[in-house]
Design brief:
Elements (H helix, E strand, L loop, with lengths): L1 H6 L2 H26 L1 H8 L3 H29 L2 H10 L1
Length: about 90
């Protein structure tokens, strides 16, 4: 086990840290709308049902419609480029 730890390159830690930052940004992106719910509700005069549909349905539809095409794209093209484009967007 000790031998495996010594062989871990600095690039592996760099990649791990970068993916962790991407995950944190992904989490914040999905939860920021819930933080803004009171302001959105007040500004747009949404009911609780409309607010719930805004928060959950848009997320579910987005991932459902784009999951399979992007999964196929990840299998056929460079995953690194796909991740880079996704982070940039």
């Amino acid at each position: 086990m000790q031998n495996q730890i010594e062989r871990t390159s600095g690039y592996a830690y760099y990649a791990l840290a970068l993916l962790m930052v991407v995950y944190i940004l992904n989490f914040l992106d999905r939860t920021i709308i819930y933080i803004l719910f009171p302001l959105i509700k007040k500004e747009m005069a949404f009911s609780d049902t409309q607010l719930a549909l805004l928060g959950t349905t848009s997320f579910v539809i987005f991932y459902t419609l784009l999951g399979i095409p992007f999964g196929r794209l990840a299998d056929s093209d460079s995953r690194t480029k796909l991740i880079a484009v996704g982070v940039a967007v």
